[in-house]
Amino acid sequence: MSGIPRAYNSFRYDDNINTSREGIRLASVVIDRPEPENGPSDMLPGRLAAALYKMTGLHSLSLDLEHFNDGQDEDSQKQMAFGQLVWPKLHSLRFHGSSGTGRTILRHCDPNVLHTLHLHTWTDSEIVEKARGIVNLRRLHLYYDRADLTEPATLACVSEKTWDEVRAILWVRIHNSVFMDYLILREANVDIQGHLDDDQDMVRLIEALRNMQTVVKYIRHLAFSLDHRRFSPRLIRFHLNGNQVHHELTRREVDLWYKKIIVDLMDVKRLVEVWVFAYDSLAFHGTRNSDKTVSVRRITLKQDPQKNSFPWGVLDD
């Protein structure tokens, strides 16, 4: 990998080549395997930073630095600490790596131009905290894959803490009554260890969903993860109709539960559509009809989705 940015940094005094570099609109970098400390790629962060700094005309940047080792990550932050506005035209950033490096990259973007963020991190990270200053943020996609996700009580996408942090991200927009176009909160697909069966667990979920309603009125298109398998069948039925029978849920009961959640959320009239991802192969899609009623469809994700529609069009942006 280090050979590519090294080659790209060649001919640095050639005006024609430098002009061509400045004219590049899209760049994508993936570090596809971890490197050992003191390995041959120790120069990679410096060369990568130098190459990216020359692409001052970028509109879209995708960086997957997950496999940087600790030394490379630290060096990357140092190499990218110089300068202020490096990418004044950048409007879309996709980033997977340490929050420190991500935050450093955001410092070099114009907060009045950048409007789309895809971040492999969560609402409480440094990079998301930095994103609070992005005035024109219209598309935000966050991804949760921490170790505690296997615990049934981890409801990352609907927790009150998450949505209090989303509110903080949107505070400029809320103050000016401006809407975010797209918000996607995704969880990694994991094997959940057991399920919740205390009535208070469902009460907390209901309260969290109500808290979401106070924020989603500033969002037009919403997608988030919520796996019904985190709750016992009894709790799902308790939420649906007060019935507390323990036997396995039917497909119809699962459909009705997600429909209830989506319809309740879309009581907020400005929400155009809501996607709820149950797990990797199942989702539910709510849309508003011309008569203002809400329709909810079960979607099998193994089928080829409409790539240009929400949320796929945003994920591919």
Secondary structure layout plus pairing:
Blueprint: H1 3-8, H2 15-22, E1 26-30, H3 44-54, E2 60-64, H4 70-79, E3 92-96, H5 99-107, E4 116-119, H6 126-131, E5 139-144, H7 160-169, H8 171-175, E6 180-187, H9 199-216, E7 219-225, H10 233-241, H11 251-265, E8 273-279, E9 282-288, E10 294-300, H12 312-315
Parallel strand pairs: 1-2, 2-3, 3-4, 4-5, 5-6, 6-7, 7-8
Antiparallel strand pairs: 8-9, 9-10
Helix pairs in contact: 3-4, 7-9, 9-10, 10-11
Describe the fold and architecture:
This protein is an alpha/beta fold. The protein folds into two domains: 114 residues, no CATH class; 203 residues, no CATH class. Helix content is 35%, strand content 19%. It has a ten-stranded mixed β-sheet with strand order 1-2-3-4-5-6-7-8-9-10, with helices on one face. Helix 3 packs parallel to helix 4 and helix 9 crosses helix 10.
Number of domains: 2
Largest sheet: 10 strands, mixed
Low-confidence parts: none
- Report the span from N to C terminus: 24 Å
Count the beta strands: 10
Organism: Fusarium oxysporum Fo47
Protein name: F-box domain-containing protein
Concise summary:
This protein is of the alpha/beta class and 317 residues long. Helix content is 35%, strand content 19%. Strands 1-2-3-4-5-6-7-8-9-10 form a 10-stranded mixed beta sheet, with helices on one face.
Salient structural properties:
317 residues, alpha/beta, 2 domains, ten-stranded mixed beta sheet, 12 helices, 10 strands, 35% helix, 19% strand, F-box domain-containing protein
